[in-house]
Amino acid sequence: xxxxxxxxxxRALGGSLGIVVLGCALxxxxxxxxxxxxxxxxxxxxxxxxxxxxxxxxxxxxxTAIDEANAGPPLTLAPTxxxxxxxxxxxxxxxxxxxxxxxxxALLTRAxxxxxxxxxxxxxxxxxxxxxxxLKDKPDSRRAAQxxxxxxxxxxxxxDQDIAVGDAxxxxxxxxxxRTLPNASDEVTQLETxxxxxxxxxxxxxxAAGLLAQGKADQPAxxxxxxxxxxxxxxxxxxxxxxxGIFQVQRAVLDRALAAVAQxxxxxxxxxxxxxxxxxxxxxxxxxVRKRVDDMREQRAxxxxxxxxxxxxxxxxxxxxKLAEQARSIDPGLATLADLDEQLTxxxxxxxxxxxxxxxxxxxxxxxxxxxxxxxxxxxxxxGAPDNDDAHNDTELPQHGVTIDKGFAxxxxxxxxxxxxxxxxxxxxxxxxxxxxGASVYDERSGALREDDQASxxxxxxxxxxxxxxxxxxxxxxxxxxxxxxxxxxxxxxYRLPSETxxxxxxxxxxxxxYWWGDDMPTHPVENLTGSGDxxxxxxxxxxxxxxxKDGFWGPAPVMSFVANPFGLFDINGNVSEWxxxxxxxxxxxxxxxxxxxxxxxxxxxxxxxGSWGSSPEQVDSAYRQGVDSDARSGRVGFRIVREL
Length: 645
Fold this sequence. Notes:
The chain has helices at about 5-30, 65-70, 80-85, 100-115, 125-135, 140-165, 170-180, 185-215, 225-235, 240-260, 265-280, 285-315, 315-330, 335-350, 415-425, 430-435, 475-490, 500-510; strands at about 360, 375, 380-385, 400-405, 410, 440-445, 450, 495, 575-585, 605-610, 625-630, 635-640, 640-645. The chain is of the alpha+beta class.
């Protein structure tokens, strides 16, 4: 380990050495010629990315000019110093054998100042004259040769710029000055050609400017500013005035588009935008104006759409439809149009409800509301059984196409005892089971229905007092119709029994199979059906039933105890069969092909549709139908209602 004395000597030596190095650095920085270094002779990178030989002077450029010179390709209207800097590639500099004398250096300093001041040619104090004098005193001076090259480059850049903006007089003056410089013959020849071209295009540019001022930017064909500017570009592709003129033409066409928008003529605006895009595709002003037009288009269309919604809310569907079409013509891609279209369709078909929507109407003259109704979608289906179905009944033929083009709502379940009791109490109506006396009820001992003079609508399928949530049975067709008429009076809406067509369409729920759940026996509880697993109170079994099926009920179940079909209807093909509005016909010959009921005035029998708690599998078929006397009351028959939309 070194001693303390050794450490002190090392620190003193290191400090002294540091002071010497710092002194050399400061001397080099402020007095470089002590080390025989001329700061103006420092080597630099050439434009070809190689290293210049020692002793070669760099071009006389400011730091800003150097940065701009390396920034990218030349611009037609860039400052002349920048253009000249980008053009300074003099590869023919003389080989310098000795350093410039003080007298030559003094001339070069004056020449450099004149160059930076823009005094290029013209008198003895100009940069060209001073660089030439320095070169005369020392023919191998690279700085003098480079200086003359820079003067020539700046003159060429100035002439190019004057030609670009159409200033022929200034270009001619600079060209005459260029002719006085050595080694300028090639540039002079090229610039003379450009001046001749300028002489041709100047009157064309003047005419184009006049047409633009007259409003003839792009029309008429063959006599517009755009046509003349295009002709100029054919003669002089780099002509900046023509390029600027075309920019102004596009601006005029874009202004036309904005004016059309101000007049709410978006079709004319789109036409003008298309024409403008052909002039200068993808230009920034094109992008900006198109965005403005699109924003105004969306704002205008959204405003009209809001008016359409207000009209629809007020019940004026015709005005809402008209306004929606106006909004569509303005902005077909408006996202909210689809929502309004759906609402208009729902308004036309479903009174502004939606398919599958559940609602109830309130009574207008007393407390209460209607049973829950579900909106059935419009559509078409094949009604009846196909001819090749061996299990079909002749009453189900011929199968025929039916279109449901009017929206309607159907009660989600059969009308309950409580709902019918509300009607009887409020209206004073006397059901036929009371007025005529009796109904058909299930006899546990025989396993069949029997007449019971004491049974009424307030009893269940077996003649016992019924729970309020059971479907009402022992109801005649007349009783069911009276209930629907009463609802119409209480609500101001049209309530009625479903037509047979509506019932089968709703029962199928959009399916084409034997039952709405498929073609085979159900594998899980779907309806209150006759199942081989069901038992009566006394242990009876069904003699003909769905094998392996058990729903847990013998007789009607409380409504909505099972799953709904695809249209949201409960117990539509089980629990109780239901009255339809139609008179009974033995077959479908001459049957309606729409949703209307098939009625013959004064008919004594009406259609009953849908299976019940006591129906055989054949009677649960979606196509199954039967005719029943209008005054019949049965423990297997109830009803549900329809509301027209």
